[in-house]
Write a structure and sequence with these properties.
The complex is a heterodimer.
Chain A (H helix, E strand, L loop, with lengths): L1 H17 L3 H12 L4 H7 L8 H38 L18 H15 L3 E2 L5 E3 H4 L24 E3 L5 H10 L5 E10 L10 E11 L4 H16 L5 E8 L2 E10 L16 E10 L1 H6 L8 E8 H9 L6 H4 L2 H4 L3
Parallel strand pairs in A: 1-4
Antiparallel strand pairs in A: 2-3, 4-5, 5-9, 6-7, 7-8, 8-9
Helix pairs in contact in A: 1-4, 2-4, 5-10
Chain B lengths: L1 E3 H4 L9 H10 L3 E6 L9 E10 L7 E6 L4 E6 L9 E5 L15 E3 L2 E3 L2 E2 L11 H5 L13 H4 L6 E5 L2 H7 L2 H12 L17 H4 L1 E4 L7 E8 L8 H9 L7 H13 L3 E5 L7 E6 L5 E3 L5 E3 L5 E4 L4 E4 L3 E2 L12 E7 L2 H10 L5 H8 L6 H16 L2 E9 L7 E5 L1 H8 L5 H9 L4 E3 L5 E5 L9 H12 L20 H15 L3 E2 L5 E2 L1 H6 L12 E2 L10 E2 L4 H12 L5 E12 L10 E15 L8 E2 L2 H15 L4 E5 L5 E11 L2 E9 L1 H6 L6 E7 H5 L16 E10 L4 H12 L3 E10 L8 E10 L8 H19 L2 E2 L2
Parallel strand pairs in B: 11-14, 25-29
Antiparallel strand pairs in B: 1-10, 2-10, 3-4, 3-6, 4-5, 6-9, 7-8, 12-20, 12-21, 13-20, 14-17, 15-16, 17-18, 18-19, 22-24, 23-24, 26-28, 27-28, 29-30, 30-31, 30-35, 32-33, 33-34, 34-35, 36-38, 36-39, 37-38
Helix pairs in contact in B: 8-9, 9-12, 10-11, 13-15, 14-15, 16-19, 22-23
Classes of the chains: A alpha+beta, B alpha+beta.
């Protein structure tokens, strides 16, 4: 009996080791351990044995069964692993084929620039105010302390609709509108982004362009506040290494007025082609709101002060990306738009 | 304003380098746009003296000269006709670089004689291009052999190019004005030019009579007569200073007037005294239609609001703008009537603009000159004329100045200065700032009394003085602070946020954001097939458009995107999609009495292949259902509620492929395939789709998404395919299914639409996947079967549908 068991075991071990596939292994298992399997047959034949031998034989057969099951399991795992390996080997792909396309429209670089600026000021507690693009001549000029004979009121520079209605040449009329709407409440702290118009068309001038206006009116607003606000803006727009410089300038609706330069974003201030070797880029105009403009807005210039600033989005974007033709912004050429 | 550094030093002993000076001036508001080297092209060139001249042995037209160049002698060959022994001439040695030449100069041989360099003409030096400048060698007036040519020509200098803002133009458009700013910066004193008038004779009144008709238009007119002059070229130093300032030297008489204008800011004019008829000067408005030939040779037709200088018979000058040819000074001039006057700024500005005649003089008058500076400038010019023209000063001044203007008094509250600037300046510091500008300050009262000389016409009120304090103190020294207090609450930015969100969704669908002009071309209306009565034809016209294509304000946004599509199609782009949220301009009545409505629109447009399929997938192309999908995605993304699509008949769109969009029952716009004729008119290869939606009406539907608990019981799916006549819209089928199924229907998806064999012509097959689910229990097959049968029956009875499964 023992020899029988051992022979079966011996043959089975060889068979298992030689099995090439899971099916082969399975048929081996059936032939050994199945209902009609060899070991099962041995157990069935135990009835014919001497009762004293039975436990011994039973133990022997069960041990053999245990051994076989273990061998089968190990071999199955081996085969599984190999088969998986073989299958995966056949599933190899050309990883250099391009990925599948997904739709991705682009934000227009002008609007992206405007939104970046808006977000900075929104985070500084500014709200967004709006005004019409077809504006009263009075609000676009006179209310902003631009008298009738001022060169900026030349028909050559502005698009007129009627004698009294003009395509606004700046976002500044929103200053007066907002003040008139809010007075006597304080503070006023707004930005006004939008389209503006000038009668001009060349590589650096577009008849339609975009500005963002800023206005803060409150008790005790100083030129220092203007400087601090714009410095905070420049840090966030151009990075913390940025320096700013205020130069005296002239705008009818602010006084004192200033042009603001930032250290050149390309060369960092050492001088390059973009900044014309000066190390500085002019980015915006600003100043303390002129007392007459405050008055036109409905505030008492002896009680409140304010500052205002305005910047051209096209200019900011052109400087930022080195774009040399303003018309590219309005052609909507995919070859241009897709670069951003 | 172009400021010669060398000239500036006449008025102030500045020891800053030109670059340092430029930086300091920029910091006080006189923006220096650039520094120019007027002798830039002359590096390496020398002064030579011709010691001998001999004919070339082998060439008739050439001469061989020996030239002393300081450190030795060189031999030159030249063909110039104007050479003479003893002349000082510009010499270029081998290796030198001439402005007009690409390569460096080399020694050359002319028929056997070596020329060790060349003698140069004015033209070759890049200093002029008249015939005379080309005809011969430049003969130098000054210098020693071996000197740098730039120094002999007085071009060893730096020119600061100032970009002046209108307020500084009043007082800084002169060398002295700039010198005063430098004095303010450095604390140095300004050296006024000494004016030495030779034997000043009286009795000018006998030689000329001056009448000013309107003293408002001409508050001051002063004149002198200088006799026995000789017209000749100005000395080199004056010529070069004029050139560096951007003016052309003409002759000593004209040059002096320009020189003094540049020096003092007061424009002057020299009339040929003998040509002034009846020796009368009348300052008066022009007669309507009066003609005057100005110095540039152009005949000008004048209007009543132009101001002229006239003699007894005729206009002899356009006041403040340009003199007349009839009294022009020239070689024959013996006596000059010199004018130094002050004219009304706006009148001069208007005339010069209308005639397109902007001169250095008109520019200064337009900005405003110092009415109290007329006589000083007149005397200075008279003295220079006498000095350079050999003349005797005979008469003057005659000064018509009926209402002398005193210096302005402005009140300044010192506390206000610190309040506006955010500084803590002491009274002493503030007063010092103002005094450095030449203002005088009386501090006895709480509000100081500041006296402003008339040359500072830009200073009119307190805030102007505050700016001056800030400027002198230094903008860079004002401390930077952040304004305190709360943000303003009254204004809402929600609208901007929704726009940004919509943009994100649309870009996710593959649409690119466009930015377009706000203008329409009248022809757009026809291109869009708009009928005569269409509201969109009521365009707001511009009074002064730049061009016909931009003569009106747009009333629709999508055509601007069609233009963008067309632009790309014409640049070989196979397709693409755009969106823009922007205003259209809608007039109730024309001409406009009130500001028109500006309505924000969301427009979309697409043509051709919007997205390539890459190497495996299928491309996405522009079509009705693509656009409808985009709109549905947008509505879902923004939670706009229920959309509905109704038939629509907009003439710009394909009659069978357009829909009116309703959001929660409210019409918000139209979309669909563009009419093939419209696509053709815009020159876009079809099909083209577009949408024009009222953005405000759409966006105000945005609400919070409604939360529903997740389903706890399993769903049962059943498919359903049916054949219905083409006329029955899918929406109707879905409505029948939904109504018949009742509350157990949890979802309905149309997953196939099929036409063609074996489906009979005129019909189509629709296949739906239905999901049944109860929120309360697991449905049994029997329950689902019962509902599903009801659906099938309804489809058969209500739509005569032929059920295929």
């Amino acid at each position: 009996m023992r020899e029988k068991v051992e022979r079966i075991l011996q043959q089975a071990q060889e068979g298992i080791a030689a099995a090439k596939s899971q099916q082969e292994l399975e048929s081996l298992r059936v032939s050994l351990l199945g209902k009609k399997g060899q070991l099962t047959a041995l157990l069935r034949g135990m009835g014919e044995l001497d009762p004293q031998e039975r436990p011994l034989v039973g133990q022997m057969v069960n041990e053999a069964r245990g051994q076989l099951e273990q061998l089968l399991k190990e071999r199955r795992q081996e085969l599984e692993a190999r088969e998986l390996q073989e299958r995966l080997a056949t599933e190899r792909i050309d990883i250099t084929l391009p990925g599948l396309p997904f739709p991705r429209g682009r934000e227009h670089v002008l609007q992206a620039t405007a939104r970046a600026i808006e977000r900075i000021f929104l985070s500084m507690g500014f709200s967004i105010a709006q005004g019409p693009e077809l504006e009263w001549d009075y609000l676009n000029f006179e209310a902003l302390n631009i008298p009738a004979d001022h060169p900026a009121r030349d028909m050559q520079d502005s698009f007129y609709v009627t004698d009294e209605i003009v395509l606004r040449t700046q976002t500044s009329p929103v200053q007066v509108r907002t003040m008139q709407q809010m007075t006597p409440n304080l503070p006023v702290r707004i930005i006004a982004p939008g389209r503006v118009y000038r009668r001009d068309d060349d590589v650096t001038h577009s008849p339609v362009f975009h500005q963002i206006e800023g206005l803060v009116v409150d008790q005790d607003i100083t030129m220092g506040d203007l400087k601090g606000t714009l410095r905070a803006f420049a840090y966030r727009m151009y990075g913390p290494q940025t320096r700013i410089r205020l130069r005296p300038s002239y705008f009818p609706f602010t006084e004192p007025s200033a042009e603001v330069d930032v250290s050149c974003t390309i060369c960092g201030g050492t001088g390059c082609r973009v900044c014309g070797e000066t190390g500085w880029l002019e980015i915006l105009g600003c100043g303390m709101v002129h007392p007459r403009v405050l008055k036109n807005g409905g505030y008492d210039p002896d009680r409140v002060t304010g500052f205002a600033f305005g910047l051209g989005i096209e200019r900011v974007a052109m400087l930022k990306y080195g774009i040399d033709d303003i018309r590219l912004f309005y052609q909507n050429d995919f070859r241009f738009l897709r670069q951003f | 304003m172009r400021v010669s550094y060398e000239w500036l030093k006449d008025y102030i002993d500045v020891d800053l380098s030109p670059a340092e000076l430029a930086e300091r001036l920029t910091a006080v508001g006189l923006a220096v746009e650039g520094l120019e080297d007027p002798g830039a092209g002359l590096a390496g060139l020398l002064v030579g003296k011709i010691l001998s001249l001999a004919p070339h042995p082998d060439a008739d037209r050439l001469q061989v000269c020996q030239v002393d160049i300081g450190k030795g002698m060189v031999q030159m060959v030249s063909g110039a006709p104007n050479l003479a022994v003893g002349q000082l001439v510009p010499v270029a040695l081998p290796g030198a670089k001439l402005p007009g030449l690409e390569s460096r100069l080399q020694a050359m041989e002319f028929r056997g004689v070596t020329s060790q360099g060349m003698l140069c003409s004015t033209w070759e030096l890049g200093l002029g291009d008249t015939e005379a400048d080309r005809a011969g060698i430049m003969i130098l007036e000054e210098g020693q052999p071996g000197d740098k040519l730039s120094s002999a020509l007085r071009l060893d200098d730096v020119v600061l190019v100032l970009e002046l803002t209108p307020n500084y133009a009043v007082h800084c458009q002169s060398m002295l004005g700039v010198a005063r700013e430098v004095a303010m910066l450095t604390g140095l004193a300004v050296k006024e030019p000494a004016i030495i008038l030779p034997d000043s004779a009286h009795g000018a009144e006998k030689r000329v009579r001056v009448d000013v008709v309107d003293t408002e238009l001409c508050p001051r007119y002063s004149t002198r007569i200088i006799s026995d002059l000789e017209t000749r070229p100005s000395p080199l130093w004056m010529q070069q200073r004029l050139r560096k300032a951007g003016m052309r030297p003409i002759n000593n008489l004209v040059d002096v007037t320009n020189y003094v204008m540049l020096e003092m800011g007061q424009p002057l004019h020299a009339f040929d005294y003998e040509r002034v008829q009846d020796k009368r000067i009348i300052v008066r408005p022009a007669l309507p239609g009066e003609l005057l030939i100005t110095l540039d040779g152009m005949e000008r037709e004048l209007q009543e609001d132009d101001l002229v200088i006239a003699d007894a018979k005729r206009a002899i000058g356009l006041a403040g703008v340009m003199g007349g040819e009839n009294t022009e000074v020239g070689p024959a001039t013996r006596h000059v009537l010199l004018e130094s006057a002050c004219f009304h700024p706006t009148t001069i500005g208007r005339t010069s603009r209308r005639l397109g005649l902007v001169s250095e003089a008109s520019n200064r008058f337009h900005k405003g000159v110092d009415v109290n500076g007329c006589i000083r400038a007149l005397d200075r010019a008279a003295a220079l004329l006498a000095q350079l023209g050999g003349g005797r000063l005979t008469a003057g001044p005659i000064d018509v100045y009926p209402h002398p203007v005193p210096p302005k008094q402005i009140l300044l509250r010192p506390a206000r200065v610190n309040k506006v600037l955010g500084t803590e300046l002491s009274g002493e510091e503030m007063a010092n700032c103002l005094e450095r500008l030449g203002l005088s300050v009386r501090r006895e009262t709480a509000a100081w009394q500041v006296t402003v000389p008339t040359r500072r016409g830009d200073l009119q009120e307190e805030v102007d003085l505050i700016e001056e304090v800030a400027r002198v103190y230094g903008y860079d020294r004002i401390p930077a602070t952040i304004p305190g207090g709360m943000a303003s609450e009254q204004l809402v930015t929600e609208q901007t946020m929704v726009q940004e969100q919509a943009g994100q969704i649309l870009r996710g669908c593959g649409l690119n954001e466009a930015v377009t002009y706000s203008f329409f071309d009248r022809r757009d209306l026809d291109r869009l097939q708009l009928p005569a009565f269409a509201q969109q034809r009521r365009l707001i016209p511009l009074a002064n458009p730049l061009r016909e294509e931009q003569a009106f304000m747009r009333t629709l946004l999508f055509p601007k995107l069609l233009e963008a599509c067309a632009f790309n199609a014409s640049h070989q782009t196979l397709g693409g999609a755009f969106y823009e949220i922007g205003p259209v301009y809608l007039a109730d009545d024309l001409p406009l009495q009130d500001l028109p409505a500006e309505e924000l629109r969301l427009a979309m447009a697409a043509y051709g292949e919007i997205m390539s399929g890459g190497w495996s997938g299928r491309p996405v192309t522009a079509g009705f259902f693509w656009l409808k999908g985009v709109i549905e995605t947008l509505a879902q993304g923004l939670h706009l509620g229920e959309l509905a699509f109704r038939p629509s008949d907009q003439p710009s769109f394909h009659p069978g492929r357009q829909a009116s969009l309703l959001c929660n029952g409210v019409p918000v716009g139209v979309f669909g395939e563009i009419h093939p004729l419209v696509a053709e008119a815009y020159d876009i290869p079809g099909p083209v789709v577009a949408a024009e939606l009222d953005w405000q009406a759409l966006a105000e539907n945005k609400r919070l998404p409604e939360y529903r608990p997740l389903a706890r019981f399993p769903a049962v799916h059943r498919d359903l395919a049916l054949i219905v006549p083409d006329e029955i819209p899918a929406a109707r089928v879905a409505a029948v299914i939904t109504a018949a199924a009742g509350p157990l229907l949890d979802g309905i998806v149309l997953f196939d639409v099929y036409q063609g064999q074996p489906v009979p012509a005129g019909s189509r097959s629709l296949a739906y996947s239905l999901t049944y689910r109860s929120p309360e229990r697991t449905l049994t097959d029997a329950e689902v079967d019962a509902v599903h049968d009801r659906v099938r029956t309804a489809l058969q009875t209500e739509l005569r549908a032929n059920l295929r499964s």
